[in-house]
Write a structure and sequence with these properties.
Two copies of one chain form a homodimer.
Chain A (H helix, E strand, L loop, with lengths): L4 H13 L4 E2 L2 H8 L12 E3 L4 H13 L4 E4 L18 E4 L6 E5 L4 E5 L4 H10 L2 E2 L12 H6 L7 H4 L6 E7 L5 E4 L12 H5 L8 E8 L1 E2 L3 E9 L2 H14 L4 E8 H10 L13 E9 L3 H17 L5 E4 L3 H12 L1 H7 L3 E2 L2 E3 L5 H15 L4 E7 L4 E7 L6 H6 L1 H14 L15 H7 L3 H13 L17
Helix pairs in contact in A: 1-3, 8-10, 9-12, 13-15
Amino acid sequence: MSAPLPSALLERLRAIVGPRGCLEVEADQAPYLRDERDLYRGRAVAVVRPRTTAEVAAIVTACAEARVGIVPQGGNTGYVGGSVPGEDGTEVLVSLSRLNRIRDIDALNYTMTVEAGCVLAEVQRAAREAGRLFPLSLAAEGSCQIGGNLSTNAGGTAVLRYGNARDLVLGLEVVLPDGSVWDGLRRLRKDNTGYDLKQLLLGAEGTLGIITAAVLALHPLPSAVATALVAVPDPRAATRLLATLRSASGDQVTTFEYLQRRCLELVFAHIEGSADPLPRPYGHYVLAELSGGGEDGALAALLEEVLAEAFEAGLALDGVVAASREQRARLWGLRETVPEAQKRAGACLKHDISVPVSRVPELIERATGLVEAALPGARVVAFGHVGDGNVHFNLSQAHGSDPEPFLARGPDVARQIHDLAAELGGSFSAEHGVGRLKRPELERYRGGVEHDLLRAVKGAFDPLGIMNPGKVVDPPRR
Amino acid sequence: MSAPLPSALLERLRAIVGPRGCLEVEADQAPYLRDERDLYRGRAVAVVRPRTTAEVAAIVTACAEARVGIVPQGGNTGYVGGSVPGEDGTEVLVSLSRLNRIRDIDALNYTMTVEAGCVLAEVQRAAREAGRLFPLSLAAEGSCQIGGNLSTNAGGTAVLRYGNARDLVLGLEVVLPDGSVWDGLRRLRKDNTGYDLKQLLLGAEGTLGIITAAVLALHPLPSAVATALVAVPDPRAATRLLATLRSASGDQVTTFEYLQRRCLELVFAHIEGSADPLPRPYGHYVLAELSGGGEDGALAALLEEVLAEAFEAGLALDGVVAASREQRARLWGLRETVPEAQKRAGACLKHDISVPVSRVPELIERATGLVEAALPGARVVAFGHVGDGNVHFNLSQAHGSDPEPFLARGPDVARQIHDLAAELGGSFSAEHGVGRLKRPELERYRGGVEHDLLRAVKGAFDPLGIMNPGKVVDPPRR
């Protein structure tokens, strides 16, 4: 070949996806090259936008032959820099956004088959139209794509009931790092025929292959919902109330979110139209939701009954059960606007940690003590999916203070909080993943035997290390 | 070393587990060397019975250094010869039965930590005593061990509601093929820190390492149960009734088992005390069970309401809802004694297949036609977990006929039935696994890219191929 490698590769890529599918001008590429949190800005040989699995396979084959790194990208809404290329401009970014057909809905089998580029909200809507529920739900659902959700094993607010993204998948179609296609699009609930390869790809953040399509497991669309905001004396009472509610309802608890008083105060201060639904302030709250069959009234009565017993037992201090759809939306609004309110309140440090549900109270207590010592004046804003042990232990700068010294302390405080989570049997990344940002944490907390295994798996799938290079782990040296 | 290898290794094994932990005499070894179905009879260097994870690690290290194969064994109740050694007597059998402590129950976190050798029924009992449900339930539960259940990803009758064994595990402790120990005993519901290694080990049938302990996810103990036997016009109506019942109950359907009339007739003929609970015979039945919170009465009323609508819609012809615990036990007895009744009726060919729920009717219809052509006079006895698409499509010899020619046709008929399942997007092994018996099927139906991936994973974990050799897949040649 007389032409230098990148231009030969570029020519091949253009031939695969057509000129409109290959973005080579910086201005066109820009939105693909920076991450959601603006932590990284990369460069790329090209941004290619295939429309079919065959095109993805051809792209990967071309890159593999040229030994050029590939960065798969969905909605690019991740928090750990997993979907943007490095700074040296040697990688090809593959955007899955045009691979976005819903291939099939099988209502009787409670499944649907979708391509990676389908926006999550579209997947939810299509399921709903078929009388089914696709329960994955998260803040970015209007723009994130299902391929990215599966590659990062997305969580969200319904994990307690329906599991993480990986629990909602029956089959996958994947383009492997050598360009071959694994057709694992099975629609089966029972299939014991060898290792569960799909579970390796789910949550692999695009480092083992590119998910191009998936068979999703659907659930019945609940006909009844009951929602309450409950004031509790402390986090310990919240975890006990959760256990009680799970048992009493026959596991119909869909959501169980914890909120410190400070979360609500930030919302009242920064979000227009928000108001305290209870007559006086309390230190700790829970947003609890049941869903199931039958009618709203029966489920609300059940929830009220459990709460009445909780008041008796001292597990609850006050509460309100939503009496209308509007009231339910207002209660949810208090939880959903916490991140926005915190953003408006100034600089913020975020920690996406999880521990066993039974250790959440100790985590919150000890982490708060640790922050008070390390960052005097910082405001702890702890909330999250306590139903599955996932606490967003966030910190806001002291009111009116300088953000710079506060943010400069970030890495040290994060280390202390992650060490504490590890001590309590927990995780430094409950739902956001590893990506590029948390590779040092992966080595620190999942080192030794586990890290060696992770690398061995990477090496088995991607010996050349060309699939999303620099994310999660590297293959073993050859 | 002057001693030949096996005796040096034997000495080392004796030192690790003590003389009582090392069975060297043929009579002592015998029960460990033949499988449940008596398909295989193997030989072993020794049968070792470690009491701790450290002992397992020492055994594996010794075997790895001597390049000697290791066969892990739990309750030895599997159907595909996965837990017995080969015939040449070169392998060491590791029985996990003495590694059987319940390490921890965390009711607030809905988890328990158990060692591999715990008998499933003991695990269920311990959970129940803590006010929790461990929902895995299957015929062998009085003798099978949890380590084997997890290694084979056991299914059973509650998969529709609670998933397979792999869906009930949060963490694992595993001795790897080089003797190192992976401590992945995390008790977390959210943990996105690298590839989900535990899902690789679950269902790997002991070919990637030895599971020594696990964190199991528990569920609330249901306070209410409602059970019905329903006559339906055909399998299509059964699948539609299932979809309706899932929606109407808010997914509280725990069991949905299909039975052909012939299954009941075999039970009536061979099982003492059995009787038809309905006034006249029908062609097809469903055993359906709901479970949840609240009281039995409310759930039974819900079930009756859905069945009343099903009668209106022509999806059900007749039915009985159990009015007492005794009646429930009698209905369950009809389903649970089918395998025993079939055994007493003479020679039998079994097929553990699955398809999408929506294709079960076509599977039963076409497989029946296929058998009528291939084995005139054979009796189709189709039943199973239709709720998750898993049909036990079994055949009994014609009444009073010679079993030999019938059984001789087994492999050919199995091939035709597996081909049909594959054509319908199904599996040749829904819950029994691959083991030694179904390796040819694995190559036939999961060949090409998928089989290469399976072997690559095997090679990454066990490059020497010493972990349960000859089961599932071999590592790539080095």
